[in-house]
């Protein structure tokens, strides 16, 4: 992701769904509710009120957590504890279940992998060490409470056997280590998939020949820029420049499509080198390109367009001992009013581009030149 242009990253950021709100994560939260409800009913049938009480608290928490996310009250990217809270509640409840069923492996059998791993995905943060430490403390604390007969010895899977101090310590350490290992494995798998998805999205938003954003990425960035304009208290002009390589069809016809591709790639390099960090270009289609200049008036946009036009004239490509030179025409229009639509301004820039080509090509034409 490091080599992806910033304007493509911005488009990816806009198109990416919030992790907590994703259907997959909400499905996991719903599964947590149903799973807790079933286990509460199971322990209720065994007449174990203290486990049922803790389960009821976890069930209430799970329902509230689900609703907070569903109605956008909790936004994970703005709340640092959004991952630690569900992890902590799950660990407390599953520790109770482990002692209630009387076997350490029940931590996994009764949903440890699903609950803890999915909770750890709630933010891009590694909860492995947190899970390990908290699981060790909780399990050992429960063991000591049973050992010193503060809590009753409960076992619904096998005969009740009072744990020794050594077995409590060993089991706690094993559980903590298991929590860490499971979290590491699932987190790596999850982040690998997340990274792969972002790379695929970047490919989908990038023109493969020139490396510039395509129309999809352009429209995503344009929406972001329009939002900035609407928030701005003062003037915030957005300039649009449409470029068209002159006589490009002749290049393809006379020298072949390989030559045409080289011309497009060279022009893309010139555009990238001529823009500021906040500007963003895109391949509009064929030999047409578009550039948006945020917070730039018509005079500033004309300077950029003219700079690119002159730079193109200096380029001289050589293919099979044949020298290829080309020029570019451009049309410039500015979005000034907040009520104006970008489609209207792009159409104006297109009209200016047509006028530039009509007047002999290799020139810049702006809306105020008419």
Topology diagram in text:
Layout: H1 6-15, H2 23-45, H3 49-70, H4 84-101, H5 106-109, H6 112-119, H7 128-147, H8 165-204, H9 215-231, E1 238-245, H10 248-255, H11 257-274, E2 280-285, E3 288-293, H12 298-314, E4 317-319, E5 322-324, E6 328-335, H13 342-358, E7 364-366
Parallel strand pairs: 6-7
Antiparallel strand pairs: 1-3, 1-6, 2-3, 4-5
Helix pairs in contact: 1-9, 2-3, 3-4, 4-6, 4-7, 7-8, 10-11, 11-12
How is this structure best described in words?
The model has no long low-confidence stretch (mean pLDDT 81). Helix 4 packs antiparallel against helix 6 and helix 7 packs antiparallel against helix 8. Strands 2-3-1-6-7 form a five-stranded mixed β-sheet, sandwiched between helices. A two-stranded antiparallel sheet has the order 4-5. It is built from 13 helices and seven strands. With 370 residues, the protein is an alpha+beta fold. Helices cover 60% and strands 10% of the residues. The protein is elongated and about 95 Å long.
């Amino acid at each position: 992701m490091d080599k992806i242009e910033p304007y493509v990253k911005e488009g990816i950021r806009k198109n990416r769904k919030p992790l907590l709100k994703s259907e997959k994560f909400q499905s996991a939260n719903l599964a947590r509710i149903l799973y807790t409800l079933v286990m509460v009913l199971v322990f209720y049938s065994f007449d174990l009120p203290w486990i049922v009480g803790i389960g009821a608290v976890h069930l209430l928490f799970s329902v509230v957590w689900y609703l907070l996310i569903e109605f956008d009250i909790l936004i994970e990217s703005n709340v640092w504890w959004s991952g630690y809270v569900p992890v902590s509640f799950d660990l407390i409840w599953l520790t109770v279940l482990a002692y209630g069923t009387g076997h350490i492996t029940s931590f996994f059998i009764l949903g440890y992998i699903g609950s803890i791993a999915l909770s750890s995905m709630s933010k891009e943060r590694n909860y492995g060490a947190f899970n390990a430490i908290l699981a060790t403390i909780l399990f050992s604390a429960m063991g000591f409470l049973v050992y010193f007969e503060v809590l009753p010895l409960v076992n619904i899977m096998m005969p009740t056997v009072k744990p020794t101090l050594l077995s409590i310590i060993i089991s706690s350490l094993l559980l903590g280590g298991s929590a860490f290992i499971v979290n590491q494995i699932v987190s790596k798998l999850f982040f690998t998939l997340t990274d792969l998805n972002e790379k695929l999205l970047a490919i989908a938003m990038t023109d493969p020949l020139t490396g510039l954003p395509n129309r999809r990425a352009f429209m995503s960035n344009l929406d972001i820029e329009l939002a900035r304009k609407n928030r701005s208290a003062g003037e915030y002009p957005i300039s649009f420049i449409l470029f068209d390589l002159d006589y490009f069809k002749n290049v393809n016809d006379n020298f072949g499509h390989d030559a045409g591709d080289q011309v497009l790639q060279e022009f893309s390099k010139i555009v990238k080198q001529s823009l500021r960090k906040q500007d963003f270009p895109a391949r509009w289609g064929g030999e047409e390109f578009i550039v948006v200049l945020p917070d730039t008036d018509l005079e500033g946009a004309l300077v950029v367009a003219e700079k690119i036009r002159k730079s193109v004239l200096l380029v001289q490509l050589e293919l099979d001992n044949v020298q290829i030179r080309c020029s570019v025409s451009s049309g410039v229009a500015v979005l000034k009013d907040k009520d104006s639509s970008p489609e209207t301004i792009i159409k104006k820039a297109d009209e200016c581009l047509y006028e530039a080509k009509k007047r002999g090509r290799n020139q810049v034409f702006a809306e105020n030149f008419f």
